[in-house]
Amino acid sequence: TEVPVLVGQKTRVQQYSAKLLHGPEQTLTTIPGSFLGPVIRLQKGQKVRIHLHNQLSENTITHWHGLHVPAEVDGHPMYAISPGQTFVYEFEVVNRACMAIYHPHPHEATATQVYHGLAGAIIVNDEEETALGLPSGEFEIPIVIQDKLFDGQNQLIYSPGMHGSMFGFYGNRILVNGHPETQLDVASRAYRLRFLNGSTARIYKLAWDDGTPITVLGVDGGLLEQPENMPYVMLAPGERLDVWADFSNRSVGSQLVMRSLAFSGVVPAMGRGMMSSEAYGLPVGSDYAIFTARITKKVTDSPKLPSTLSKISRYSIGDTHNPNKPVPITISEGHMQMLLNGRPHAYNDVQDSERIPLNTIQLMEISHEQSGGHGMGGMGMGRGMGGMGRGGMGMMGGMMAMAHPIHLHGQAFQIVSRSIGSANEGGYATVNQGFINSGLKDTVLVMPGETVRIIKPFQDYKGLFMFHCHNLEHEDMGMMREFLVE
Ligand code: C2O
Ligand code: CU
Ligand code: CU
């Protein structure tokens, strides 16, 4: 399949457009009236070639978030192309069925490009999934959630400034598939809703307004083994969620609202007061609607929810290369310097702990820097804060503590354990029933004070693979490192 993906500038909105040169029907579907890129549908085993034509007036490169592809076509910032240039991607789809994302990845400009419109969904199918007969066609609906800030002329505003860089930039309106106040007209039957959080920083606590549990079919890396009913689901930037939404017992004229419920603990109190969205009335962790499903048509037959969905091949800690010495991914938070492993993003700056032997399974531990435990993080890097160096960061760090969606390129990982420090239990209790730890993930929301252990394979491809915070303001600030697989 050959798909040219063009990026171009339309006044203040940047857009992906794509048209199919040749290949199977249905490879591209445009979401009507949306500025989002078309949905790219791929089949496991398919070989694809994609031409990225840069029609922006700035550099860009596209990353296939969630797809396991060679390093040279993974959208590493070092491959960013200039205006007018073309980058040709060629890879085989080796992933199992899943929803992935394509979005730009140039260093220091990812957030602004995604915000202005450059993002799209990729849906990968495979035989195992097809055999399940899940709702498809018009009954399978992508739900891309983004928040945006608009001015009086309904033009996008993106002005993170210092506080937006530290705490994330938040909009005053919620868009679904590029539209505000989304209403989905549905029939009284089961649907498959494919959620993607395409916001730069906003975290959602998704729930149906009448208390119906959310029936989860899958997450980032594809289907769960069996459906799971959740009271609510946390969805952080970069995460995906596959939902079975059954409207079959609902009457015509009724409606069901998906909301983001109230929660706390993801942004520090001092940060919240400074965020622009507070003034505009949509604070992070407040309760607001995402979209409304309105039942407009009675139908009599509906597919049945399968009791088994998939078989996930799992690794245990004993299968890992380093059962007693997890690879560290350390989060440190300071004034204008959110870092991973104590260092900002820099090309060719791979530390010993960031070198991974090819074809190994690695135990990894994502945790927060212990206050005062890291002498050189701020100062040694020449990015110190004068009198407020790392030593003074303990208290500062506590005040700034916030949640970070940590994303690792390459193959999906398993979550083996999560533990929360006692100082952060309060906020944690408002979110922790919304984590789905049973599926394969590529992005995990790490709460303040939380330690998450994961098992991740590094197979097939050598080279540099990014890992970073998917709060895109943090990523652009340098909260991004790379593993060298060798
Ligand atoms: Cu979705 Cu490296 O990003
Ligand atoms: Cu990615
Ligand atoms: Cu972050």
Describe it.
It contains eight helices and 32 strands. Strands 10, 11, 12, 13, 15, 17, 18 and 20 form an eight-stranded mixed β-sheet that branches. The chain has a five-stranded mixed β-sheet with strand order 3-4-9-8-6. A five-stranded mixed β-sheet has the order 14-22-21-16-19, with no helix packed on it. It is mainly β. The relative contact order is 0.14. Helix content is 9%, strand content 39%. The protein has three domains: 2-126, Immunoglobulin-like (Sandwich); 137-297, Cupredoxins -  blue copper proteins (Immunoglobulin-like, Sandwich); 317-485, Sandwich (Immunoglobulin-like). CU-O-CU linkage binds at residues 63, 65, 101, 103, 105, 238, 407, 409, 466, 468, 470.
Question: Which descriptors apply to this entry?
Answer:
globular; binds CU-O-CU linkage; 486 residues; Immunoglobulin-like; binds copper (II) ion; 5-stranded mixed beta sheet; 3 domains; mainly beta; 8 helices
Which percent range fits the helix content? under 10%
Largest sheet: 8 strands, mixed
From the N-terminal CA to the C-terminal CA, the straight-line distance is: 30 Å
In DSSP terms, counting alpha (H) and pi (I) runs of 4 or more, how many helices? 8
> What's the CATH class of the largest domain, please?
Mainly Beta
GO molecular function, one term: oxidoreductase activity
Domain Plastocyanin-like: 13-128, 399-486
InterPro entries: Cu-oxidase-like_N (IPR011707), Cu-oxidase_C (IPR011706), Cu-oxidase_fam (IPR045087), Cu_oxidase_CS (IPR033138), Cu_oxidase_Cu_BS (IPR002355), Cupredoxin (IPR008972), TAT_signal (IPR006311)
Keywords: Metal-binding, Oxidoreductase
